[in-house]
């Protein structure tokens, strides 16, 4: 812990452990910078760095003039195979989910989107923009593409529920396989607008390709998740 960077990292991990073990509960006011300085016998600069990272990573919420408070636990989503859609996963966590359709438009197939679906140039594709909310806070922004010939005329009320369940129930299409790529990205102006966060805010980015049993690509999507409000769970069986 001789280096300042290692010291503030140590303090941050210690404080995270106290939050996770519920020494500090959701909504509790967090110790002040001065109190933490006294406990760990470190400079205010070191503590300020640790607390700033806890805010950025979603463990604390700052309220001007009042101090820092322990934030609600992040909503976690299971990436392993599961029969539970996201709403059911949230319910199991004691959280309420909501999907809001931002726009549905028909665009002409071209470029990489055309290639992913194996369509002819200018074939119609439905472009769907949605946001997801957890306990009335925006956590996810999604752009999904579905060819018109696969599920023509998708409506607002359909995309404000599970899209895969809609495809099964209303269009008799079952998703057999999804391939997901997870990366870290920073919110640009457009993403920050939909996620209600600052430009440059750290986000998870997931690109998903969904196929039916024949290997036909049914849906392609790009999703952005606020890093301070979302975590992911992966289970492996051996």
Automatic annotation (TrEMBL):
CDD domains, sorted: WHTH_GntR (cd07377)
One GO BP annotation of this record: negative regulation of DNA-templated transcription
Keyword line: DNA-binding, Transcription, Transcription regulation
Coiled coil regions, renumbered to chain: none
Gene behind the chain: ybgA
Gene3D superfamilies: Chorismate lyase-like, Winged helix-like DNA-binding domain superfamily/Winged helix DNA-binding domain
Name of the protein in question: GntR family transcriptional regulator
Name of one Pfam family that matches: UTRA
Isomerase among keywords: no
Molecular function (Gene Ontology), one example: DNA binding
Record InterPro entries: Bact_HTH_transcr_reg, Chorismate_lyase_/UTRA_dom_sf, Tscrpt_reg_HTH_GntR, UTRA, WH-like_DNA-bd_sf, WH_DNA-bd_sf
Residue ranges of every copy of the HTH gntR-type domain listed in the record: 5-73
């Amino acid at each position: 812990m001789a280096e300042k960077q290692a010291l503030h990292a140590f303090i941050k991990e210690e404080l995270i452990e106290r939050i996770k073990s519920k020494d500090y509960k959701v909504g509790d006011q967090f110790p002040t910078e001065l109190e933490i300085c006294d406990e760990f016998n470190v400079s205010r600069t070191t503590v300020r760095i640790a607390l700033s990272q806890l805010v950025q990573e979603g463990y604390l919420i700052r309220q001007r003039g009042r101090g820092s408070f322990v934030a609600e636990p992040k909503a976690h989503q299971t990436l392993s195979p599961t029969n539970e859609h996201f709403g059911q996963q949230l319910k199991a966590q004691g959280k309420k989910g909501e999907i809001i359709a931002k726009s549905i438009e028909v665009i002409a197939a071209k470029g990489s989107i055309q290639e992913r679906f194996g369509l002819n140039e200018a074939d119609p594709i439905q472009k769907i923009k949605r946001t997801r909310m957890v306990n009335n806070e925006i956590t996810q922004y999604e752009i999904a593409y579905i060819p018109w010939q696969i599920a023509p005329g998708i409506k607002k009320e359909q995309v404000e529920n599970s899209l895969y369940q809609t495809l099964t129930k209303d269009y008799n299409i079952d998703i057999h396989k999804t391939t997901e790529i997870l990366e870290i990205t920073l919110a640009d102006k457009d993403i920050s607008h939909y996620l209600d966060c600052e430009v440059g805010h750290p986000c998870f980015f997931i690109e998903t390709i969904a196929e039916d049993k024949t290997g036909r690509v049914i849906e392609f999507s790009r999703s952005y998740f606020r890093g301070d409000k979302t975590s992911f769970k992966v289970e492996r069986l051996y």
